[in-house]
Design brief:
The relative contact order is 0.26. The protein is α+β, with helices and mostly antiparallel strands. Helix 1 runs antiparallel to helix 4. The protein has 4 helices and 13 strands.
């Protein structure tokens, strides 16, 4: 009987602890159904993208294509200054170079884009220009954007970026960047397996309930 009561108390305490855990929401980016907007001040007439059968997206030429968070996920914006939430972006990235017209990418690229990476834009206020402090330059020849993360091989490379540690303010779009104002030798960037994760801190009420549950469990242990 004592053992049964101990097990019951432990289960109740674990349930209360679970209620106080941080909440996690994962927004998986489906490039095939996502809503894209081209940045008119950055793109040229050859700008384009293509979604492959394996779910990866290829960004061609001089291209900046933005994923609209509201149309894609139903959220107006992400506020990185909110102390009760934390956001992480996970994705895989690869640099390719096409050989000839319509040719397949082979081997290590012999040329680089000027900027290959991501820009977190807030278009709600009419912003039209790219902002270096809100961008990650994963691979490129220009000294522009944050360089805390770098693409270092010729295969798919996984990245996990804690956005709150590097950016501030809000963003409404995630912009995929293959900046080639000059000739880049048919170089293209590719993204796949992209997930935006939102982690919410436990509320004061849930922490209080957890504290009461643990206190009651300890008292019950002493009584048995």
């Amino acid at each position: 009987m004592k053992l049964a009561r101990k097990l019951c108390s432990a289960i109740v305490a674990c349930g209360m602890a679970a209620s106080a855990n941080a909440g996690v929401i994962n927004y998986d980016v489906d490039f095939d159904t996502a809503t894209f907007e081209g940045m008119s001040r950055q793109n040229n007439g050859d700008s384009d993208y293509f979604v492959q059968n394996n779910g990866a997206i290829r960004i061609y030429s001089d291209s900046w294509f933005a994923i609209d968070l509201e149309d894609t996920f139903g959220i107006d914006s992400v506020n990185l200054d909110d102390p009760l939430t934390n956001y992480t972006l996970d994705f895989r990235f690869r640099l390719f170079q096409r050989i000839g017209d319509g040719g397949q990418a082979r081997g290590v690229p012999t040329s680089l884009p000027e900027i290959g990476g991501l820009f977190f834009a807030d278009f709600s206020g009419g912003q039209t220009d790219a902002v270096s402090s809100q961008s990650f330059n994963l691979v490129g020849t220009q000294n522009w954007g944050l360089d805390d993360f770098s693409y270092t091989n010729d295969r798919w490379q996984r990245f996990s970026i804690d956005l709150d540690n590097y950016l501030s303010g809000s963003f409404t779009h995630i912009v995929l960047v293959n900046d080639c104002d000059r000739e880049c030798g048919n170089t293209q960037v590719r993204f796949r397996d992209m997930t935006l994760s939102e982690v919410s801190a436990p509320t004061a009420l849930s922490l209080a309930v957890l504290g009461l549950g643990i206190t009651g469990w300890r008292r019950h242990r002493r009584s048995v």
